[in-house]
Design goal:
Length: 224
């Protein structure tokens, strides 16, 4: 009987351990210092969150297409946003924009209870299958994420992975006192990655984490 080992199983090739280690070193070099985040990114198989034809490029530090004009975020962006969220030591996190499901899986790998919302039905169906295949229990909803998830609010942290011209007020309302909201805000050509901290007295402070480029936050839902 012959064993059919994939490169990832034996730790070589474009999806193996060496490719992942290179990515981790790259992230370290670009300022990601939180070992918990680096570990989660090393552990979650990013190649399973893209089409098979792109799997060999999954551990490059780039965004990649996932269909429907959407992208899986660049690992550096995922790392940066995850680091910012962890400041709130969150137990429950809301994500707007499931996309491939990768960011949600990275948060789940950190032991966070994840609630994720996606407006494109086809993308959500594929992401749900990935969660199942990986044995990850991630709660998800097919909806316009700009309304948040009021039945499950408040959240310790909220992450928006699509760009809008302004902050969504409804999301800020669903953030618990002491919580952190991370979102790209600005024009479609480029945004600032904002980290908002809601103080215990309800006062909100904002920090600019750098320039990013996200796909747009759109309204309504689509089935396919
Ligand atoms: N976090 C994703 C990034 C996907 S790109 C990942 O790790 O792969 C952003 C996603 O946000 C797209 O799938 C897009 O369809 C979705 N999106 C855009 N506007 C939305 C909205 N109003 N509600 C929910 N999802 C939205």
């Amino acid at each position: 009987m012959s064993l059919r080992l994939r490169p990832a199983d034996v730790g070589i090739g474009m999806t193996g351990q060496r490719a992942r280690d290179r990515l981790i070193e790259d992230l370290r070099g670009s300022g990601i210092a939180d070992e918990r985040v680096l570990n989660a990114i090393r552990t979650v198989p990013r190649h399973q969150f893209v089409d098979e034809a792109l799997a060999s490029r999954a551990y490059e530090n780039n965004a990649l297409p996932i269909g429907h004009g959407q992208t899986i975020s660049q690992p550096w962006v995922v790392a940066k946003m995850t680091e910012a969220l962890l400041r709130a030591a969150p137990k429950r996190v809301l994500e707007v924009g499931t996309g491939s499901g990768y960011q949600a899986a990275v948060l789940a790998a950190l032991g966070v209870k994840v609630y994720t919302v996606e407006r494109i039905g086809d993308l959500l169906r594929v992401a749900r299958k990935r969660f199942r295949d990986l044995g990850m229990h991630i709660r998800s909803k097919h909806d316009d994420g700009r309304i948040g998830w009021p039945e499950e609010a408040p959240f310790d942290a909220i992450i928006v992975t699509a760009a809008g011209p302004a902050l969504v007020e409804a999301l800020l309302e669903q953030l618990a006192p002491g919580g952190v909201l991370v979102a790209p805000v600005g024009a479609s050509s480029g945004q600032a990655l904002l980290c908002l901290h809601k103080q215990v007295d309800g006062e909100v402070s904002s920090e600019d984490l750098g320039a990013v480029s996200f796909v747009p936050l759109l309204s309504g839902v689509v089935d396919r």
